[in-house]
Amino acid sequence: MNAATIFVKKLFYAQAAALKNPEFDLGAAVAEAEGQFEERWEAAEATDDCDFPFNQDIDIPSDESPVNFADVVELMDWIEGEVEGIAALITDGVDDLDEDSVNLGAELLRAAGQKAFSLLKAEAQDLQKPNDAKRERARQKAMNKYGNTYQKRIQKADEKGVDVTYFQEDSDPADGTEDVLADSEAGIDALVEDILAIFTAQQTS
Question: What whole-number distance in Å separates Cα of residue 119 and Cα of residue 8?
């Protein structure tokens, strides 16, 4: 969980860097993050406490179909795919020809990465030392921070003349939040819950 916490954040930050700089080597950044994750993974597997259920179906909260990983590479590929899907919710609204719009997208990607990092960290700490109240406080703080950051960045970009229509669309005014914000929040929450389910799954004989 600790390794995944850092891995997911690095993936979001790499997406942000690639958005801001067309010459940024996204592949190299992802490969570096993968290498660090694998190092942590190998260290965990070297202990007697780690017995990951490879080649077994693992039920995850976000999907009726279970996931199944032959090795750690497939696991990383799955995480990367989930992050890319969440990132696309944000980058789809970015005007690549408008520097301020690009900056907005990058800021939101980093905010999403920070939220995912904070939520995963809360879960990892809870695994090490269970404390429901502490975990819930950390979760609420992370969720509030992402929502506040989203609103502030959109307002700032709007004041600079950026077309933020995409980011302000709200198909359900009753829920009190914009579609992109709600969808990205839901995506991050689901990813965190899925990772927790995957890393706490027990190997069956």
Answer: 11
> What is residue 177's three-state secondary structure?
coil
Quick one: which H or E segment has residue 25? Answer: none
And the tokens for 19? 């958005």
**Alpha helix segments (H runs only) across 92-178:** 99-128, 132-159, 165-168
Q: pLDDT per residue over 104-152, tens digit each?
A: 999 999 999 999 999 999 999 999 999 999 999 999 999 999 999 999 9
Helix 2-20 / helix 179-199 crossing angle, nearest 10 deg: 150
* CA distance linking residue 100 with residue 33, whole number of Å: 28
DSSP SS3 for 81? helix
Query: What type of residue is 112?
Result: A
Nearest CA to 108 out of 74, 70, 71, 148 is that of: 148
HSE toward the beta carbon, residue 64, CA cutoff 13 A: 0
Tokens representing 161 are 């003349």
- Separation in Å, CA 168 to CA 97, 165, 172, 191: 20, 5, 12, 24
| In contact, 145 and 114? CB cutoff 8 Å | yes
Residue 66, classed as helix, strand or coil, is strand
